[in-house]
Write a structure and sequence with these properties.
Number of strands: 10
CATH class: Alpha Beta
Order of helices and strands: EEEHEEHEHHHEHEEE
Helix content: 25-40%
CATH superfamily: P-loop containing nucleotide triphosphate hydrolases
Distance between the termini: 23 Å
CATH topology: Rossmann fold
Structural class: alpha/beta
CATH architecture: 3-Layer(aba) Sandwich
Oligomer: single chain
Shape: globular
Strand order of the largest sheet: 6-7-8-3-9-10
Amino acid sequence: MGLKAVGVTRCFSGRTILEAVDIEVGPGVMAVLEGPNGAGKTTLLRIFATVVRPDQGEASVDGYDVVRGGARVRERIGAAFVNERSLYWRLTGQENLRLFARTRGLSSRDARAQVDNVLEELDLVTISRRWVADLSAGQRQRLIIARAGLGEPTCMLIDEPLRGLDETGIKTMLSFLRGRAARGAAVLIVAPKLDELQPSADILFRLRDGRIHPWGETDPTVPLAEGLRP
């Protein structure tokens, strides 16, 4: 059933960050939500991740309400936010992923297998035994995304996945995320710019002043409309 928000509004310190947001991303779909810094993109991801509650409206993951069914929601999502501190810097990349895989409820054997797979998919095998503190920003970014893919989540919430990546890293990342969508996951990516993301997206959304706009509405030179890729 994927991700769905209806009339979601969220305010902080008297300021409206999200206003009556409606958005839906179905299974097997890779969607990109574009908007400038401070537009409320990450807030929306955090609502879907049950970290922040909406003030009004409803949001759900696979039909489970993010407020009333938080535990069920967290079982189904894989989230990656722009925050390098989400990794343990005094552990290796492999140790980090195995630890997080176990917290997802995987057996030791399954954890090892899934970690080996995501390391391969994101081209991290050769650096997986190095301390996270010694890795580049781009390598840590790929590890954070790898963590989000553990446990075969049905919905993935990804914050700026291309940050700090070179051309090769970007291709690897996009292949990984497209692969997750191809396996049936609903993938929602937020980013301040489309850049390399646009050709890989099935659906494009634009967030301005806390509201979702049909693609092209705020920039008539963009040939896409109604949020859909041709």
